[in-house]
Amino acid sequence: MNICLYTSNTKEKFDKLIGRDNITILGIETSCDETAVSIVRNGTTVLSDILFSQIDTHSIFGGVVPEIASRAHAEKILPLIDSALKDAKLTFNDIDAIAVTYAPGLVGALLVGVSVAKSLSFAYNIPLIKVNHIEGHICANFLGANSNLVPPFCAVVVSGGHTAIYNVKDYVTYEYLGGTTDDAIGEAFDKVARFLNLPYPGGPQIDKLAQSGQANINFFKNQKSISSEFKLSYSGLKTAVINYIHGMRQRGEDINLPDLCASFTATACDLLIDTVVAAAKKHKLKTIALAGGVAANTYLRTNLPIVASKQNISVVIPPHKYCTDNAAMIASRAYFAIKKGQDIAGLDLNAGIV
Ligand code: KG4
Ligand code: ZN
Q: How many CA atoms lie within 13 A of 111 on its CB side?
């Protein structure tokens, strides 16, 4: 059977958008445990931004339960789209394109956003744009206060699922420079926190405890050196910390929780900071832009600018609400794709396949 790729005349509408001055995009994000809808003009101006976090639902299980996440997205997505339009005082007649996260993420969760976006594109005859979630995080740097940021720059995406360093050559060309070969940095925070019986998500809990601690525990016998390929690994650190906790518990010794959290945070972040600054320096990039949930970490936010400034590199960090998963970054990424005539999708768009 021949699938109709583009509904009605959405391809013609898409082609006309390329040269247009004002483009208003409805973004949809459902890749993990946040249902998010946003309306963004010209990739930078956020007209409305709505988010329903499922954290309370998942925290009793100590992590995201995919089936529960999908069901919650299905329940929330249509009312949130309604609210986003109302907040921006717009109707579907004002929307030039619909942007949706199609990968990477939990397949069932992504499928909800992709199915709704395809349905709306078909029903209202609005071009559909597919957005890669990690590229969305990079574009969070173009939103609001940081909208003066201009490529080239070094982008770092640090979240529960990703630890990746990019050379952002222009608004749509992202060269992968390096990143984790195993666990993401946020995953290491969450797993260590879980072992300490701290609530999910563990990153903010460890961050808070670290504030009153001293980084006085060395988890590695030998200091880790920076890989020339800017490779990172967090699985070994996670295991070293968990083994340390286990050993202390077996010996009946008291764990100084703030010191443990401060030591783990400093080890995890220093590794990242040194690698990112080295990558930016090698590629002669004068700005490092952070994104992803771990960009909220106090130690990282404080120390990355200090280390980078010694190499004459500046650091920009988006407002917290755009660091964590959101739909404004998805709409922003779609705007830059449209301007280059890229990433139009049809009714054959799959969820979860990069
Ligand atoms: O970007 P995000 O909201 O979702 C993903 O795409 O993963 O990132 C969530 C991750 C979690 O691992 C969470 O523990 C971590 O970001 N995180 C933090 C902090 N706030 C959130 N990690 C360390 N320190 C924080 N303050
Ligand atoms: Zn994310």
A: 8
